[in-house]
Amino acid sequence: MSILDAPIARLDGTPTTLGEITGGKPALLVNVASKCGLTPQYAGLEKLHEEYADRGFHVVGLPCNQFMGQEPGSPEEIAEFCSATYGVTFPMTEKIEVNGEGRHPIYAELTTVPNEQGEAGDIAWNFEKFLVAADGTVVARFSPRVEPEDASLVDAVRNLVS
Question: Regarding beta strands 58-63 and 15-17, do their DSSP bridges make them parallel or antiparallel, or are they unpaired?
Answer without folding.
Answer: unpaired
